[in-house]
Amino acid sequence: MKTSDVRLMLLSAFAALLFASCSPSPPTTRQVNSATPSRPSGYETHSSLLATFSGRVVRIEDGDTISVLDDANRNYKIRLQGIDAPEGGQAFGDRSRQSLADEVFGKQVSVEWSKRDQYGRIVGKVLLDGRDVCLAQIRAGLAWHYKYYQNEQSAEDRKMYADAEEEARMAKRGLWVDAEPTPPWEFRRSGNK
């Protein structure tokens, strides 16, 4: 075996191990993430490995992040799945936050989730009386469908979110009144926030 073949095999093995260590482990019925100190009250595990809990929205961080207090008075920071809203210092950032506040602040919501992000926030779909709040932000033209993470969504949600963004763009709703609004991921990458 040539030295170059051995190097290639070792490099491939190392890449596979690195990828495996960076990939989120699948949730279990015991806990969704081993870093989770406790499960939210009302925690349920579904056959799709989504956990669900309910609570009252007690804080609106921005147009895609809220805090939910469960029945046991545990506070959970929730990053709305499938969307990315304008940042606070960005055009439409305050309007997006206010829209989300008007929609859910002080109300009882359900959160369907299966992972936490690098900041420890639960990444989940937020439902108010069965209505998808994440989708509502996109329809209002106050968030983008976050396509970078779209593979974490069901095929049905992926299509609905993409269609809702396209519809908001065509109607020039919300941030789409601007010809070329700056996506929040580009805004953050440029050192803003």
Summarize the structure.
It is built from five helices and nine strands. With 193 residues, the chain is α+β, with helices and mostly antiparallel strands.
- Summed up, the helix count is 5
Compute the average pLDDT: 83
CATH topology: OB fold (Dihydrolipoamide Acetyltransferase, E2P)
Shape: globular
Provide the spatial order of strands within the biggest beta sheet: 2-3-4-7-6
SSE string, helices as H and strands as E: HEEEEEHEEEHEHH
**In this structure, how is the largest beta sheet organized?**
5 strands, mixed, barrel
* Uncertain residue segments: 17-39, 41-47
What is the rounded Rg? 19 Å
Strand tally: 9
Distance between the termini: 52 Å
Oligomeric state of the chains in view: single chain
Fraction in beta strands: 15-25%
CATH class: Mainly Beta
**Can you tell me the number of structural domains?**
1
CATH-level-2 architecture? Beta Barrel
Q: By helix and strand content, what is the structural category?
A: alpha+beta
Textual characterization of the structure:
With 193 residues, this protein is α+β, with helices and mostly antiparallel strands. It has one domain (38-189): OB fold (Dihydrolipoamide Acetyltransferase, E2P). It contains five helices and nine strands. The chain has helices at 3-22, 93-104, 133-139, 155-171, 184-189, and strands at 44-45, 51-62, 65-69, 75-80, 83-84, 108-116, 122-128, 131-132, 144-145. The chain has a five-stranded mixed β-barrel. A two-stranded antiparallel sheet has the order 5-9. The chain is globular and about 45 Å long.
